[in-house]
Design brief:
The chain has about 425 residues and is an alpha+beta fold. It has 3 domains: about 5-190, no CATH class; about 195-265; about 270-410, Histidine kinase-like ATPase, C-terminal domain (Heat Shock Protein 90, 2-Layer Sandwich). Helices cover about 65% and strands about 10% of the residues. Strand 6 and strand 7 form a beta hairpin. Helix 1 (about 5-30) runs antiparallel to helix 2 (about 40-60), helix 2 packs antiparallel against helix 3 (about 70-85) and helix 3 (about 70-85) runs antiparallel to helix 4 (about 100-110). The radius of gyration is 36 Å and the shape is elongated. The protein starts with a helix and ends in a 6-residue tail after the last strand. It comes from Neptuniibacter caesariensis. GO terms for molecular function: ATP binding; phosphorelay sensor kinase activity. This is histidine kinase.
Length: about 425
Amino acid sequence: MANHRENLLQLSYIRTVTLFGQCLAVIFAIYGLQAELNIWLIGPALAVLALLNLITYARLMSPWPVTEPEFFTQLIADMSLYGAILFHMGGATNPFIFLLLVPLIIASATLSKRYVWLVAITVVVIYSSLLFYYEPLIQLENNHQHRVMELFDFHIVGMWINFLLTVLVVTYFIVRMQQSMQKQQEKLEQEREKRIQDQQLLSLATMAAGTAHELGTPLSTMQVLLKELEHEHQANPELLEDIELLRQQTDICAKRLKQMAQSVKQEQSSTRLMAATLIIDETIEQLMIQRPEVSYSLLVSGQGDSPSLNCSTSLRQSLLNLLNNAADAQPKDIAIELDWDQQHVFFRIHDKGPGISIEQSENLGKPFVTTKGKGLGIGLFLTATTLARYAGDVRLYNHPNGGTLTEVTLPIRKHHE
Protein backbone atom coordinates (compact mmCIF):
# COMPACT_ATOMS: atom_id res chain seq x y z
CA MET A 1 0.00 0.00 0.00
CA ALA A 2 1.33 3.38 -0.98
CA ASN A 3 2.06 5.89 1.74
CA HIS A 4 -0.30 8.61 0.49
CA ARG A 5 0.30 10.79 3.55
CA GLU A 6 3.97 11.07 2.63
CA ASN A 7 3.03 11.54 -1.04
CA LEU A 8 0.65 14.37 -0.16
CA LEU A 9 3.34 16.04 1.93
CA GLN A 10 5.77 15.93 -1.01
CA LEU A 11 3.02 17.24 -3.31
CA SER A 12 2.53 20.23 -0.99
CA TYR A 13 6.26 20.98 -1.25
CA ILE A 14 6.10 20.85 -5.05
CA ARG A 15 2.99 23.04 -4.98
CA THR A 16 4.86 25.63 -2.90
CA VAL A 17 7.73 25.73 -5.40
CA THR A 18 5.27 25.96 -8.31
CA LEU A 19 3.35 28.78 -6.64
CA PHE A 20 6.55 30.73 -6.09
CA GLY A 21 7.61 30.15 -9.72
CA GLN A 22 4.21 31.22 -11.08
CA CYS A 23 4.36 34.45 -9.07
CA LEU A 24 7.81 35.20 -10.51
CA ALA A 25 6.53 34.42 -14.02
CA VAL A 26 3.63 36.86 -13.60
CA ILE A 27 5.97 39.59 -12.39
CA PHE A 28 8.35 38.96 -15.31
CA ALA A 29 5.49 38.97 -17.84
CA ILE A 30 4.17 42.28 -16.56
CA TYR A 31 7.44 44.16 -16.10
CA GLY A 32 9.78 42.26 -18.45
CA LEU A 33 7.54 41.51 -21.42
CA GLN A 34 5.17 44.43 -20.87
CA ALA A 35 2.31 41.95 -21.13
CA GLU A 36 -1.22 43.14 -20.45
CA LEU A 37 -2.30 40.53 -17.92
CA ASN A 38 -5.57 40.66 -16.05
CA ILE A 39 -4.09 40.47 -12.57
CA TRP A 40 -7.59 40.54 -11.04
CA LEU A 41 -8.26 37.12 -12.58
CA ILE A 42 -4.79 35.58 -12.21
CA GLY A 43 -4.43 36.75 -8.59
CA PRO A 44 -7.47 34.84 -7.26
CA ALA A 45 -6.28 31.63 -9.00
CA LEU A 46 -2.88 31.96 -7.33
CA ALA A 47 -4.59 32.75 -4.02
CA VAL A 48 -6.78 29.63 -4.29
CA LEU A 49 -3.64 27.55 -4.98
CA ALA A 50 -1.98 29.03 -1.87
CA LEU A 51 -5.14 28.42 0.19
CA LEU A 52 -5.30 24.81 -1.01
CA ASN A 53 -1.71 24.34 0.14
CA LEU A 54 -2.48 25.76 3.59
CA ILE A 55 -5.52 23.50 3.92
CA THR A 56 -3.35 20.53 2.89
CA TYR A 57 -0.75 21.36 5.56
CA ALA A 58 -3.50 21.59 8.19
CA ARG A 59 -5.04 18.32 6.99
CA LEU A 60 -1.69 16.53 7.29
CA MET A 61 -1.58 17.47 10.98
CA SER A 62 -4.67 15.33 11.64
CA PRO A 63 -4.39 11.61 12.48
CA TRP A 64 -6.77 10.51 9.71
CA PRO A 65 -5.15 8.44 6.97
CA VAL A 66 -4.80 9.91 3.48
CA THR A 67 -6.74 7.74 1.03
CA GLU A 68 -6.08 7.23 -2.66
CA PRO A 69 -9.25 9.10 -3.78
CA GLU A 70 -8.24 12.07 -1.64
CA PHE A 71 -4.76 12.20 -3.15
CA PHE A 72 -6.30 11.88 -6.64
CA THR A 73 -8.62 14.81 -5.87
CA GLN A 74 -5.62 16.91 -4.83
CA LEU A 75 -3.91 16.22 -8.17
CA ILE A 76 -7.09 17.12 -10.10
CA ALA A 77 -7.34 20.37 -8.14
CA ASP A 78 -3.72 21.20 -9.00
CA MET A 79 -4.27 20.59 -12.71
CA SER A 80 -7.46 22.67 -12.74
CA LEU A 81 -5.75 25.61 -11.03
CA TYR A 82 -2.71 25.33 -13.31
CA GLY A 83 -5.08 25.36 -16.29
CA ALA A 84 -6.89 28.46 -14.99
CA ILE A 85 -3.58 30.30 -14.50
CA LEU A 86 -2.30 29.28 -17.95
CA PHE A 87 -5.57 30.37 -19.56
CA HIS A 88 -4.82 33.98 -18.59
CA MET A 89 -1.13 33.67 -19.55
CA GLY A 90 -1.09 32.50 -23.15
CA GLY A 91 -2.59 29.03 -22.89
CA ALA A 92 -0.71 26.44 -24.95
CA THR A 93 1.68 29.14 -26.23
CA ASN A 94 3.05 29.57 -22.70
CA PRO A 95 6.37 27.68 -22.45
CA PHE A 96 5.34 26.52 -18.96
CA ILE A 97 2.42 24.51 -20.37
CA PHE A 98 4.35 21.32 -19.57
CA LEU A 99 3.74 22.04 -15.90
CA LEU A 100 0.57 20.02 -16.46
CA LEU A 101 2.72 16.90 -16.87
CA VAL A 102 3.97 17.03 -13.25
CA PRO A 103 0.66 15.83 -11.69
CA LEU A 104 0.48 13.08 -14.33
CA ILE A 105 3.99 11.86 -13.51
CA ILE A 106 3.21 11.93 -9.79
CA ALA A 107 -0.02 9.99 -10.39
CA SER A 108 1.84 7.39 -12.46
CA ALA A 109 4.25 6.80 -9.57
CA THR A 110 1.69 6.66 -6.76
CA LEU A 111 -1.86 5.84 -7.92
CA SER A 112 -3.59 2.76 -9.30
CA LYS A 113 -4.24 2.31 -13.01
CA ARG A 114 -7.78 3.71 -13.16
CA TYR A 115 -6.81 6.92 -11.38
CA VAL A 116 -3.75 7.32 -13.62
CA TRP A 117 -5.98 7.10 -16.70
CA LEU A 118 -8.39 9.66 -15.27
CA VAL A 119 -5.51 12.05 -14.60
CA ALA A 120 -4.16 11.47 -18.12
CA ILE A 121 -7.55 12.21 -19.70
CA THR A 122 -7.91 15.36 -17.60
CA VAL A 123 -4.44 16.57 -18.66
CA VAL A 124 -5.25 15.99 -22.35
CA VAL A 125 -8.58 17.80 -22.06
CA ILE A 126 -7.04 20.83 -20.31
CA TYR A 127 -4.12 21.02 -22.77
CA SER A 128 -6.41 20.65 -25.80
CA SER A 129 -8.72 23.37 -24.49
CA LEU A 130 -5.80 25.74 -23.99
CA LEU A 131 -4.88 25.32 -27.66
CA PHE A 132 -8.03 27.19 -28.66
CA TYR A 133 -9.19 29.10 -25.62
CA TYR A 134 -6.70 31.43 -23.94
CA GLU A 135 -5.76 35.03 -23.47
CA PRO A 136 -2.52 35.81 -25.35
CA LEU A 137 0.41 37.18 -23.39
CA ILE A 138 1.38 39.73 -26.08
CA GLN A 139 -0.92 41.59 -28.47
CA LEU A 140 1.35 42.08 -31.46
CA GLU A 141 -0.90 44.57 -33.12
CA ASN A 142 -0.97 46.80 -30.07
CA ASN A 143 2.59 46.33 -28.86
CA HIS A 144 5.06 47.03 -31.66
CA GLN A 145 8.12 47.16 -29.41
CA HIS A 146 8.29 43.38 -29.44
CA ARG A 147 9.49 41.82 -32.59
CA VAL A 148 8.46 38.33 -33.56
CA MET A 149 12.02 36.97 -33.23
CA GLU A 150 12.41 38.46 -29.79
CA LEU A 151 9.20 36.83 -28.70
CA PHE A 152 10.39 33.56 -30.19
CA ASP A 153 13.66 33.85 -28.24
CA PHE A 154 11.72 34.50 -25.06
CA HIS A 155 9.63 31.43 -25.79
CA ILE A 156 12.70 29.22 -26.31
CA VAL A 157 14.33 30.49 -23.11
CA GLY A 158 11.07 29.94 -21.24
CA MET A 159 10.85 26.37 -22.52
CA TRP A 160 14.44 25.76 -21.38
CA ILE A 161 13.67 27.09 -17.89
CA ASN A 162 10.49 25.05 -17.80
CA PHE A 163 12.41 21.93 -18.81
CA LEU A 164 14.96 22.45 -16.02
CA LEU A 165 12.27 23.05 -13.41
CA THR A 166 10.29 20.03 -14.55
CA VAL A 167 13.40 17.83 -14.35
CA LEU A 168 14.14 19.10 -10.84
CA VAL A 169 10.57 18.66 -9.59
CA VAL A 170 10.08 15.22 -11.12
CA THR A 171 13.47 13.97 -9.95
CA TYR A 172 12.87 15.24 -6.42
CA PHE A 173 9.44 13.67 -6.18
CA ILE A 174 10.44 10.32 -7.68
CA VAL A 175 13.50 10.07 -5.41
CA ARG A 176 11.38 10.81 -2.34
CA MET A 177 8.80 8.28 -3.48
CA GLN A 178 11.53 5.70 -3.93
CA GLN A 179 12.84 6.39 -0.43
CA SER A 180 9.34 6.10 0.99
CA MET A 181 8.78 2.80 -0.81
CA GLN A 182 12.14 1.53 0.41
CA LYS A 183 11.22 2.36 4.00
CA GLN A 184 7.93 0.54 3.57
CA GLN A 185 9.77 -2.46 2.16
CA GLU A 186 12.18 -2.47 5.09
CA LYS A 187 9.26 -2.27 7.50
CA LEU A 188 7.58 -5.21 5.77
CA GLU A 189 10.82 -7.20 5.99
CA GLN A 190 11.07 -6.44 9.70
CA GLU A 191 7.48 -7.53 10.24
CA ARG A 192 8.14 -10.72 8.30
CA GLU A 193 11.23 -11.47 10.39
CA LYS A 194 9.23 -10.78 13.55
CA ARG A 195 6.52 -13.21 12.48
CA ILE A 196 9.15 -15.87 11.77
CA GLN A 197 10.69 -15.27 15.21
CA ASP A 198 7.27 -15.47 16.84
CA GLN A 199 6.61 -18.78 15.13
CA GLN A 200 10.00 -20.09 16.25
CA LEU A 201 9.35 -18.93 19.80
CA LEU A 202 5.95 -20.61 19.78
CA SER A 203 7.57 -23.85 18.64
CA LEU A 204 10.21 -23.59 21.36
CA ALA A 205 7.58 -22.80 23.99
CA THR A 206 5.48 -25.79 22.90
CA MET A 207 8.48 -28.11 23.04
CA ALA A 208 9.55 -26.68 26.41
CA ALA A 209 6.07 -27.18 27.88
CA GLY A 210 5.92 -30.75 26.59
CA THR A 211 9.41 -31.54 27.84
CA ALA A 212 8.69 -30.04 31.26
CA HIS A 213 5.56 -32.16 31.55
CA GLU A 214 7.40 -35.32 30.48
CA LEU A 215 10.33 -34.73 32.85
CA GLY A 216 8.09 -34.45 35.89
CA THR A 217 7.46 -38.20 36.13
CA PRO A 218 11.09 -39.43 35.86
CA LEU A 219 12.25 -36.75 38.31
CA SER A 220 9.66 -37.86 40.85
CA THR A 221 10.75 -41.46 40.35
CA MET A 222 14.41 -40.53 40.84
CA GLN A 223 13.61 -38.61 44.05
CA VAL A 224 11.76 -41.63 45.49
CA LEU A 225 14.58 -44.01 44.54
CA LEU A 226 17.25 -41.73 46.01
CA LYS A 227 15.37 -41.62 49.33
CA GLU A 228 15.19 -45.43 49.37
CA LEU A 229 18.90 -45.70 48.55
CA GLU A 230 19.67 -43.27 51.35
CA HIS A 231 17.85 -45.52 53.89
CA GLU A 232 19.43 -48.70 52.57
CA HIS A 233 23.06 -47.46 52.65
CA GLN A 234 23.29 -45.68 55.98
CA ALA A 235 26.53 -47.54 56.73
CA ASN A 236 28.36 -46.20 53.63
CA PRO A 237 29.23 -42.49 54.20
CA GLU A 238 30.88 -42.02 50.79
CA LEU A 239 27.89 -43.40 48.94
CA LEU A 240 25.53 -41.32 51.08
CA GLU A 241 27.48 -38.20 50.08
CA ASP A 242 27.00 -39.02 46.39
CA ILE A 243 23.34 -39.80 46.93
CA GLU A 244 22.86 -36.48 48.72
CA LEU A 245 24.49 -34.66 45.78
CA LEU A 246 22.20 -36.42 43.31
CA ARG A 247 19.17 -35.61 45.46
CA GLN A 248 20.16 -31.94 45.51
CA GLN A 249 20.49 -31.92 41.73
CA THR A 250 17.08 -33.53 41.20
CA ASP A 251 15.53 -31.04 43.63
CA ILE A 252 17.06 -28.20 41.60
CA CYS A 253 15.62 -29.65 38.39
CA ALA A 254 12.19 -30.03 39.95
CA LYS A 255 12.35 -26.47 41.26
CA ARG A 256 13.31 -25.15 37.82
CA LEU A 257 10.40 -26.98 36.21
CA LYS A 258 8.03 -25.43 38.74
CA GLN A 259 9.47 -22.00 38.02
CA MET A 260 8.95 -22.55 34.29
CA ALA A 261 5.27 -23.26 34.90
CA GLN A 262 4.89 -19.93 36.70
CA SER A 263 7.20 -17.85 34.49
CA VAL A 264 4.49 -16.07 32.47
CA LYS A 265 2.62 -14.89 35.54
CA GLN A 266 5.84 -13.77 37.22
CA GLU A 267 6.94 -11.94 34.09
CA GLN A 268 3.79 -9.81 33.99
CA SER A 269 4.13 -8.74 37.62
CA SER A 270 7.91 -8.28 37.72
CA THR A 271 8.31 -5.51 35.13
CA ARG A 272 9.26 -2.19 36.73
CA LEU A 273 11.51 0.82 36.26
CA MET A 274 15.03 0.27 37.58
CA ALA A 275 18.29 2.19 37.37
CA ALA A 276 20.66 0.72 34.78
CA THR A 277 23.48 0.53 37.35
CA LEU A 278 21.28 -1.49 39.70
CA ILE A 279 20.30 -3.88 36.92
CA ILE A 280 23.90 -4.60 35.96
CA ASP A 281 24.94 -4.98 39.62
CA GLU A 282 22.19 -7.51 40.30
CA THR A 283 22.98 -9.42 37.11
CA ILE A 284 26.70 -9.59 37.90
CA GLU A 285 25.89 -10.69 41.45
CA GLN A 286 23.78 -13.53 40.08
CA LEU A 287 26.61 -14.48 37.71
CA MET A 288 29.13 -14.66 40.55
CA ILE A 289 26.83 -16.95 42.51
CA GLN A 290 26.61 -19.32 39.55
CA ARG A 291 30.18 -18.87 38.28
CA PRO A 292 32.52 -18.02 41.18
CA GLU A 293 35.53 -18.73 38.97
CA VAL A 294 34.78 -15.68 36.80
CA SER A 295 36.90 -12.53 37.17
CA TYR A 296 35.71 -9.24 35.72
CA SER A 297 36.07 -5.45 35.72
CA LEU A 298 33.13 -3.05 35.62
CA LEU A 299 33.40 0.46 34.13
CA VAL A 300 30.51 2.93 34.35
CA SER A 301 31.36 5.60 31.77
CA GLY A 302 27.97 7.34 31.49
CA GLN A 303 27.73 10.93 32.65
CA GLY A 304 25.24 12.07 35.30
CA ASP A 305 22.66 10.03 37.15
CA SER A 306 21.98 6.50 35.99
CA PRO A 307 18.97 6.36 33.61
CA SER A 308 16.04 4.03 34.19
CA LEU A 309 15.00 1.01 32.14
CA ASN A 310 11.96 -1.21 32.01
CA CYS A 311 13.37 -4.25 33.77
CA SER A 312 11.93 -7.72 34.27
CA THR A 313 13.08 -11.22 35.08
CA SER A 314 13.44 -12.06 31.38
CA LEU A 315 15.58 -8.96 30.73
CA ARG A 316 17.95 -9.79 33.58
CA GLN A 317 18.08 -13.38 32.36
CA SER A 318 18.99 -12.16 28.87
CA LEU A 319 21.90 -10.10 30.21
CA LEU A 320 22.94 -13.06 32.36
CA ASN A 321 22.93 -15.30 29.27
CA LEU A 322 25.34 -12.92 27.53
CA LEU A 323 27.63 -12.83 30.57
CA ASN A 324 27.54 -16.63 30.71
CA ASN A 325 28.47 -16.79 27.02
CA ALA A 326 31.46 -14.53 27.71
CA ALA A 327 32.44 -16.68 30.68
CA ASP A 328 32.21 -19.82 28.53
CA ALA A 329 34.58 -18.23 26.00
CA GLN A 330 37.08 -17.13 28.70
CA PRO A 331 36.13 -16.75 32.39
CA LYS A 332 39.12 -14.53 33.22
CA ASP A 333 39.34 -10.75 32.80
CA ILE A 334 35.86 -10.08 31.37
CA ALA A 335 35.55 -6.32 30.77
CA ILE A 336 32.01 -4.99 31.39
CA GLU A 337 31.12 -1.41 30.51
CA LEU A 338 27.93 0.53 31.19
CA ASP A 339 27.37 3.71 29.16
CA TRP A 340 24.45 5.90 28.10
CA ASP A 341 23.47 8.97 26.13
CA GLN A 342 20.25 10.99 26.00
CA GLN A 343 18.17 8.17 24.51
CA HIS A 344 19.89 4.80 24.98
CA VAL A 345 21.79 2.69 27.49
CA PHE A 346 24.68 0.53 26.28
CA PHE A 347 25.94 -2.67 27.94
CA ARG A 348 29.26 -3.81 26.52
CA ILE A 349 30.90 -7.14 27.37
CA HIS A 350 34.41 -7.89 26.13
CA ASP A 351 35.73 -11.41 26.66
CA LYS A 352 39.22 -12.66 25.88
CA GLY A 353 38.05 -15.77 24.06
CA PRO A 354 38.77 -16.90 20.48
CA GLY A 355 36.22 -14.53 18.91
CA ILE A 356 33.68 -15.43 16.24
CA SER A 357 34.22 -16.54 12.66
CA ILE A 358 32.60 -15.00 9.59
CA GLU A 359 30.35 -18.04 9.18
CA GLN A 360 29.20 -17.81 12.78
CA SER A 361 28.57 -14.05 12.60
CA GLU A 362 26.18 -14.50 9.66
CA ASN A 363 23.96 -16.91 11.64
CA LEU A 364 24.16 -15.41 15.13
CA GLY A 365 20.77 -14.88 16.72
CA LYS A 366 19.12 -17.69 14.77
CA PRO A 367 17.70 -20.62 16.73
CA PHE A 368 19.78 -23.79 17.14
CA VAL A 369 22.98 -21.99 16.10
CA THR A 370 25.74 -22.08 18.72
CA THR A 371 29.32 -20.81 18.79
CA LYS A 372 30.41 -22.92 21.76
CA GLY A 373 30.39 -26.40 20.23
CA LYS A 374 27.89 -27.51 22.86
CA GLY A 375 24.45 -26.53 24.05
CA LEU A 376 21.19 -26.20 22.15
CA GLY A 377 21.96 -22.92 20.39
CA ILE A 378 18.84 -21.11 21.58
CA GLY A 379 20.32 -18.83 24.28
CA LEU A 380 21.33 -15.97 21.99
CA PHE A 381 18.13 -16.33 19.98
CA LEU A 382 15.99 -16.00 23.10
CA THR A 383 18.15 -13.12 24.31
CA ALA A 384 17.78 -11.20 21.02
CA THR A 385 14.03 -11.83 20.97
CA THR A 386 13.61 -10.64 24.56
CA LEU A 387 15.62 -7.48 23.91
CA ALA A 388 13.53 -6.78 20.80
CA ARG A 389 10.41 -6.75 23.01
CA TYR A 390 12.00 -3.86 24.90
CA ALA A 391 12.91 -2.05 21.62
CA GLY A 392 16.54 -3.02 22.10
CA ASP A 393 19.04 -5.18 20.25
CA VAL A 394 22.29 -7.09 20.69
CA ARG A 395 25.30 -7.13 18.37
CA LEU A 396 28.47 -9.18 18.48
CA TYR A 397 31.80 -8.10 17.01
CA ASN A 398 35.35 -9.33 16.89
CA HIS A 399 37.27 -6.97 19.17
CA PRO A 400 40.46 -5.40 17.68
CA ASN A 401 42.40 -6.57 20.75
CA GLY A 402 41.08 -10.11 20.46
CA GLY A 403 38.02 -11.84 21.78
CA THR A 404 34.38 -10.89 21.27
CA LEU A 405 32.64 -7.60 22.01
CA THR A 406 28.95 -7.97 22.83
CA GLU A 407 26.95 -4.72 22.79
CA VAL A 408 23.40 -4.43 24.08
CA THR A 409 21.37 -1.28 23.31
CA LEU A 410 18.20 -0.45 25.25
CA PRO A 411 16.01 2.69 25.15
CA ILE A 412 15.84 4.89 28.24
CA ARG A 413 12.40 5.09 29.86
CA LYS A 414 11.22 8.22 31.64
CA HIS A 415 9.41 7.86 34.95
CA HIS A 416 6.26 9.51 33.55
CA GLU A 417 6.02 7.13 30.60
